[in-house]
Structures are given as C-alpha cells and as structure tokens.
Amino acid sequence: MTAATTAPTWSVVVNDEEQRSVWPSDQEPPAGWHTVGFTGTREDCLDHIAADWTDLRPLGLRRRMGER
C-alpha cells in the first residue's frame, strides 16, 4: 500500500507594490513579499488573485497617476 499523495498547498503573496503571486505555503516567501492569508491549491490561489487584483498597475505608478 502506498500513501495517498496530496496536492501541494500554495499561498497568495503580495509585495510593497501590491503585486500578487503564488508561493508554496511550506516555504517562506522571498524577501519583499508577505502572505495575505489565503491558501489553497495553486488554481484556487490564482482564481483568488484574478478576482482580487483587478488593477495590475504597481502601487507607485497608481500614486504617480493620482489614484489611490
């Protein structure tokens, strides 16, 4: 008998420019990135990002354009 394999768990991460990505939840995010509290399958995380991150411009650009 073999142990059942489970899909890896991923986390949604964000940087200071409010850009989002996915990162394996069993690893620390790279420098400059932090988790936002959403974990799941990679597809779940990408779906969450697609629904949540509708303005892809980095924060610095949005500020320069006068939007918050």
Automatic annotation (TrEMBL):
MbtH-like domain segment(s): 1-51
InterPro entries: MbtH-like_dom, MbtH-like_sf, MLP_fam
Listed GO CC annotations: cytosol
Pfam family, one: MbtH
Biological process, per Gene Ontology: siderophore biosynthetic process
Name of the protein: Antibiotic synthesis protein MbtH
Organism (species): Streptomyces vietnamensis
Higher taxonomy: Bacteria, Bacillati, Actinomycetota, Actinomycetes, Kitasatosporales
